[in-house]
């Protein structure tokens, strides 16, 4: 293990790898459209597998299309250290979301090979299927099945807007694997990612030590009115669901202000029924996203949301229902894995801050079954899920070095995992 303290990744090679994959699904505006289980996703997967095979890794694919590239350790029976993220993108995605965590893992393996370092424990570099949820909903589907959050048959039956199922598309691109899509024990798991928010850049800090992930609740708010003709029906005789919408939204914005700075509310989609220009709507459906890292505060927000909806709907003689579509509780990452990241940062002498992720990641589901932590680097103006998404090469290199030394702390010893003192 001598000389490991001085080991560093090749930042230029990491950048070149990112730009090579960015060509797959490149958009005219400079981003990427490489949606899950498309021919472009297949091309990205194929290139990843090629690079990993060139490094001597064994490639296996499970029934959800999750790819595991294994670099063997001196003790093949030892529990592996997992790292990775995803290759799929949004329709108008960027060059770094997800793919950075995958290709940083490739760079770690290349660095270890160049240095001739054989670690005690195996490393498994993972590509998780359909993290974005852009084509198949919900998001984080591959890691969700692997961790036991979703049943395999349920996930296989999910369809896109064209009626294609997850299973049929896995078969179509040749990534319906034979390995069971079930969690197996691991020493640790690390996911490296761009922050997708503005906090690190605003603080001029290159590394985020992520201690957990905000709780997320997705709702469909349905406000029921009465359809009637837009012309003959006087305003004071209408049961128009839009009348209750502005005060509900204003009250929800006020609710997040009460629980600042971490509370979040987003209205991501609205559907009107029947959707005719000259008909007062019979119903509107509003997608509401509430977030907070404290489970007690998130529950308080949930109760307040329900109460204010009842109040404002009744003011206009309307009825309203709230349907909980998805509940992802707040996550606290494993303390030993967090300490491995802290020690890597100290060893590398990088400025860093501890923070909570505002976005969901595959690490959320992994943390339920294996010890897990995350590492963040800044992205310009906090912009992500956007073709202008950008991260500085120096920050990407720094994050990859932190990942390298976090993995070394966990995989480099024959003892049960403890962070290097």
Describe how the helices and strands are arranged.
Layout: H1 11-22, H2 39-54, E1 58-61, E2 67-71, E3 81-85, H3 99-114, E4 123-127, H4 141-147, H5 152-156, H6 166-173, E5 188-194, H7 199-203, E6 207-213, E7 215-224, E8 228-229, H8 245-258, E9 264-273, E10 279-280, E11 283-292, H9 295-315, E12 319-328, E13 331-332, H10 335-348, E14 352-357, H11 362-366, E15 372-377, H12 393-411
Parallel strand pairs: 3-4, 3-5, 5-15, 6-14
Antiparallel strand pairs: 1-2, 2-4, 6-13, 6-15, 7-11, 7-12, 8-10, 9-11
Helix pairs in contact: 1-3, 1-12, 3-12, 8-9, 10-12
Describe this structure in words.
The chain has 421 residues and is of the alpha/beta class. Helices cover 34% and strands 22% of the residues. The strands form three sheets. Strands 1, 2, 3, 4, 5, 6, 13, 14 and 15 form a nine-stranded mixed β-sheet that branches. Strands 9-11-7-12 form a four-stranded antiparallel β-sheet, covered by helices on one side. Helix 8 (245-258) runs antiparallel to helix 9 (295-315). It starts with 10 loop residues before the first helix and ends in a 10-residue tail after the last helix.
């Amino acid at each position: 293990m001598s000389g490991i303290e001085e080991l560093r990744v090749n930042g230029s090679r990491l950048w070149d790898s990112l730009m090579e994959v960015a060509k797959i699904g490149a958009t005219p505006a400079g981003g990427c459209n490489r949606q899950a289980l498309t021919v472009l996703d297949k091309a990205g997967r194929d290139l990843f597998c090629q690079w990993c095979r060139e490094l001597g890794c064994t490639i296996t694919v499970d029934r959800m299309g999750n790819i595991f590239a294994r670099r063997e350790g001196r003790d093949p029976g030892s529990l592996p250290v997992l790292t990775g993220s995803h290759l799929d993108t949004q329709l108008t995605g960027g060059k770094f979301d997800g793919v950075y965590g995958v290709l940083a893992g490739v760079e770690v393996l290349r660095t270890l090979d160049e240095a001739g370092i054989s670690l005690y424990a195996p490393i498994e570099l993972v590509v998780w299927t359909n993290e974005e949820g852009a084509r198949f909903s919900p998001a984080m589907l591959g890691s969700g099945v692997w961790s036991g959050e979703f049943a395999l048959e349920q996930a296989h039956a999910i369809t896109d807007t064209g009626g294609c199922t997850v299973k049929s598309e896995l078969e179509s691109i040749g990534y319906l694997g034979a390995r069971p899509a079930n969690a197996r024990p691991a020493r640790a798991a690390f996911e490296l990612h761009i922050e997708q928010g503005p906090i690190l850049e605003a603080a001029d800090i290159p590394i985020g030590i992520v201690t957990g992930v905000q709780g997320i609740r997705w709702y469909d708010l349905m406000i029921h009115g009465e359809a009637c003709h837009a012309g003959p029906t006087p305003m004071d005789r209408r049961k128009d669901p839009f009348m209750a919408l502005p005060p509900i939204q204003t009250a929800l914005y006020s609710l997040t202000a009460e629980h600042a700075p971490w509370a979040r509310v987003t209205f991501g989609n609205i559907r009107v029924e029947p959707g005719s220009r000259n008909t007062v709507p019979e119903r509107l459906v509003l997608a509401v996203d509430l977030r907070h890292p404290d489970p007690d505060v998130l529950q308080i927000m949930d109760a307040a949301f329900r109460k204010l909806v009842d109040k404002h709907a009744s003011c206009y003689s309307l009825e309203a229902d709230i349907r909980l579509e998805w509940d992802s509780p707040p996550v606290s990452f494993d303390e030993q894995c967090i300490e491995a990241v802290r020690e890597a940062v100290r060893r590398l002498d990088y400025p860093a801050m501890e923070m909570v992720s505002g976005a969901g990641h595959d690490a959320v589901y992994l943390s339920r079954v294996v010890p897990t932590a995350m590492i963040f680097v800044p992205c310009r103006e906090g912009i992500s899920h956007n073709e202008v998404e950008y991260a500085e090469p120096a920050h990407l290199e720094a994050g990859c070095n932190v990942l390298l030394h976090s993995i070394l702390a966990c995989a480099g010893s024959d003892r049960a995992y403890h962070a290097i003192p």
